[in-house]
Amino acid sequence: MTQPPVFKRAPRPEGKGEAAAPSGTSRLNKRMAELRMCSRREADAWIEQGWVKVNGLPASMGQQVTLSDRITIDKAAEQQQDRQVTILLHKPMGYVSGQAEDGHEPAITLINPRSHWMGDPSKMRFTPPHLRGLAPAGRLDIDSTGLLVLTQDGRVARQLIGEDSEMEKEYLVRVAYTGHENTAAATAASATYGGKANQLTTIGDFDRVSANVQAVFPKALLERLRHGLSLDGKPLKPAKVDWQNPEQLRFVLTEGKKRQIRRMCEQVGLKVVGLKRIRMGGVQLGQMPAGTWRYLGPNESF
To answer: What backbone phi and psi angles, to 5 degrees, belong to 43?
Structure first.
């Protein structure tokens, strides 16, 4: 089976063997992406097809442009974009977001007519070309569930995972408290719970608090989840973190480091026992059952 491509943040071109770009200019593909005309990859493909003009003249690969240059695209490119689809999948556990690994199937294998959600408001019909070039814009770990976006549209991918993206992603996270080893934050918080925080410092993974975690988890550590943690030597952006119920936290992030929520929780003595993504930007998972999917509707946007 041919593996689907994966949208990734494009590395900065090193310009090996190229002269430095003139001051005040940028590469054409980058400028087109900034204007939300397409992704950089799509721009390069269109330039090769002869579908892009700069100031009325055919564009060339790697061409430098200024902010005042007029960029136009051929109707063929617009028609190609109009045919591109974006699919919203409720990913169950046990599937990887991208290419198959360690014997686990990729989420794209769930996209077929049988699993198309009957409540899809778009009324679009599935056709095999909808799988061509379909790739996940972002990822969910194999043991996480919820909203996974797969798209043929580079503009959507850039919105969600572009290097300048600050798209909100919302998660429901079920946790257990395993204790926190003598941190100043835990000690300061112990008075709030009559010394319970100190009692929890020796709790191990097989003797954890999994019921009414909210009652024993120090408020000072909740503040650290919101702001003050670092991963891979870099401080994390502020996050919205609140209790949804006594065993479940609600996270809203604007960045997406690998296994970020699980690693954040580990730093404050929490163990994630369930994680579900329920929103990306303005698009909700809603009532769609696990293992089913639908199309992004024409009136929806991230």
So the answer is: -60, -45
Tokens of 296: 């992004």
| CA angle, residues 276, 128, 150, in degrees to nearest 5 | 25
In DSSP terms, 275 is beta-bridged to 173
Residue 284, Cβ neighbours under 10 Å: how many? Answer: 14
How many other CB atoms are found less than 10 A from the CB of residue 206? 6
Q: Which two tokens stand for residue 95?
A: 């599937």
Residue 265's contacts (CB-CB under 8 Å, 6 or more residues apart) are: 173, 175, 225, 271, 272
CA angle 11, 109, 288 (to 5 degrees): 95
Q: Give the span between the Cα atoms of 57 and 72, in whole angstroms.
A: 10
Give the H/E segment covering residue 157: helix 154-161
Tokens of 49: 């097809």
Q: In a 10 Å sphere around its CB, with 0-12 CB exposed, 13-18 middle and 19+ buried, how is residue 217 labelled?
A: buried
- Torsional sign, CA 49, 50, 54, 58: positive
pLDDT beyond 80 at 27:
yes
**Chain CA centroid to CA 91, Å:** 13
Query: What is the Cα–Cα distance from 142 to 275, expressed in whole angstroms?
Result: 11
Task: Report pLDDT digits (tens) over 223-281.
Answer: 999 999 999 999 999 999 999 999 999 999 999 899 999 999 999 999 999 999 999 99
**Angle 182-248-192 from CA coordinates, rounded to 5°:** 40
The C-alpha atoms of residue 10 and residue 26 are separated, in whole angstroms, by: 15
Which residues lie below 8 Å from residue 300, measured CB to CB, with a gap of 6+?
Answer: 282, 283
Alpha carbon distance 267, 84 (integer Å)? 41
Indicate the pTM of the whole model.
0.73
Instruction: Give the C-alpha separation, 192 to 194, whole Å.
Output: 6
- Say whether 247 sits in a helix, a strand or coil: coil
